[in-house]
Design goal:
The protein has about 280 residues and is α/β, with parallel strands linked by helices. The chain has 13 helices and eight strands. α1 (about 15-25) crosses α13 (about 255-280) and α4 (about 55-60) packs antiparallel against α13. The model has no long low-confidence stretch (mean pLDDT about 100).
Amino acid sequence: MKTGLIMEGGAMRGMFTAGVTDVMMENGIKFDGAIGVSAGAVFGCNYKSKQIGRTIRYNKKYCADKRYCSINSLLKTGDLYNAKFDYYDIPKKLDIFDTETYKNNPMEFYVVATDADTGKAVYKRLDNCDDDDLLWLRASASMPLLSRIVNIAGGKYSDGGTADSVPIKYFESIGYDRNVVILTQPADFIKHRNKLVPIFRVCLRKYPNLVKALATRHIKYNETIKYINEKEKSGEILVIRPPEALNIKAGEKSPDELERVYQIGRKIGNGSIQKIINFLKQ
């Protein structure tokens, strides 16, 4: 049996995931592997580096800083979330990411990105969280229109949520058969077709397969959630989700709002600890 942790994205809805995962780390819960998508990747990597509280700490400190996330950054660089500041200055200088602990932790960590040329999901294991791995984290969280396509070793990649928002089937396919899934939407959530698809067709016309994936994302997402619900009912997986819509902006500037969502995650996490322990022991 291999135990896995699967983390959905959702921009600053990821503060919910951070609250849950901090509580799990505080209670010594370990997994054989974890996989994150978009915010679930860039925040979830702190599980492997064992840095409790890091996600909420640096987000609250820099959320209103124009170097972190701003229209100014989008206009100047093509990225709403500034690539240099977010993927170099913060982890290497301002709130240092513990790469040694990350590398020495035997838990495998994967991220999901979308191949811009094919529109298909790409799953990448990150062993070191070095500069190359940081590119994959950035690609996984590169929201269409709000971020540039990320070039890695000749390939072009975009937001992982486009092709596979909750990669449970992939994790099962590589042997993870006892999985805890953290979702950032409530149980009654249904995803609808993105209203920006006509704009995607114009702005991303060089990548027709990526546009097609964006246009059908809601269908794939809802099918995945149906699959997750069925496996949850049978007891094959354990799902942790917010009780209601989190209602937080993708580029939230208020530390209080980030803290609010984080505390919802902590509350749900604390209420789920014994269930998680029992589930992983079965």
